[in-house]
Every structure is written in structure tokens, then in C-alpha cells.
Amino acid sequence: MVRLRKPLPPYTLKTPEGGKVYLPDLKGKPLVLLKDEALAQSLAARAAELKALGAQTYLLAQAPRPSPLLLDPEGALLPAIPQRGVLVTDAFLEVYHLGPVRDEEEVLEWLRFVEAQCPECVLPEADWF
Q1: Could you report the per-residue pLDDT of 48-102, keeping only the tens digit for each?
Q2: Which residues of 74-104 are buried (b: 16+ CB within 10 A; e: fewer)?
Q3: Rounded to whole angstroms, how far apart are CA atoms 85 and 32?
Q4: How far is CA 105 from CA 33, 35, 100, 102, 109, in A?
């Protein structure tokens, strides 16, 4: 079960080519999962901003569609994400947002928020001087 402020469950998803992706292996970068193809295309147009935020973004589906895509054939995560919604995690796969967004800019705002919350991403006070 996916919950806010809890780690993403260790599900295994599939690639369109038949490979497996174990979600804990995606740790290290913020993660965005969505199921709305139009929103995925809008985000793809802002790939440079996503890259600058170090984010990895995947469209979830039960059957093959355009890439970057992860398949959820058993429906482990798809039902948790509302239509026109996203799941946003920090680099440790803690869920920060699970709900609808108005557009790709709001997804980027969530990623910026997550980046600001990450205590490991901030220099210790002693390094400021």
C-alpha cells in the first residue's frame, strides 16, 4: 500500500522489453511515476529541468505505450495514482506527493520541494563559513 511520508513499497515492475525493475534499485534520485500520457509528454518537453533536478520520470501502464515506460501488469501501483495525478518521491523513495496535479509545472514544484527537504542535500553548517 502506498502512503504519504512512507517509503514506496518494494514492488517489481517491468520494462516493455520484458526486463524487471525493482523499485528499491531506483534509490538515489527523486522519482516521479504517472499514468497520464499527456502529462508525461508535457514533462518530456521539460527534460532539461527534470535532469537539473536529478529526477527520474516514468509513465506507468499495464500494456506497452510510449517510453520512458514501466509496466505494472498486476496493478500494484496504478490504482494508487489518480487520473491526472502523480506519485513523487525523494531520493530515498519516501512518498512526498500522491495526488492530482494541474500541469507539469506543479510536478516540477513538487520536485523542487522534495529537493529542499532533503537534509543530505544540504551542506553542514560548518561548511558554510
Answers
A1: 999 999 999 999 988 876 667 898 988 889 999 998 899 999 999 999 999 999 9
A2: eebbeebbeeebbbbbbbebbbbbbeebeeb
A3: 10
A4: 15, 17, 12, 8, 6
- The grid cell for 90 is 525523494
Under 8 Å between Cβ of 96 and 89:
yes
d(Cα 100, Cα 102) in Å, to the nearest integer?
7
- 3-state DSSP percent of the chain in helix, strand and coil, to 5: 35, 25, 45
Collapsing DSSP states into helix, strand and coil, what is residue 94?
Answer: strand
Can you tell me the distance from the alpha carbon of 81 to that of 95, in angstroms, rounded to the nearest whole number?
Answer: 12
The model's pLDDT over 13-35, given as tens digits with 9 standing for 90+, comes to 998 888 999 999 999 999 999 99
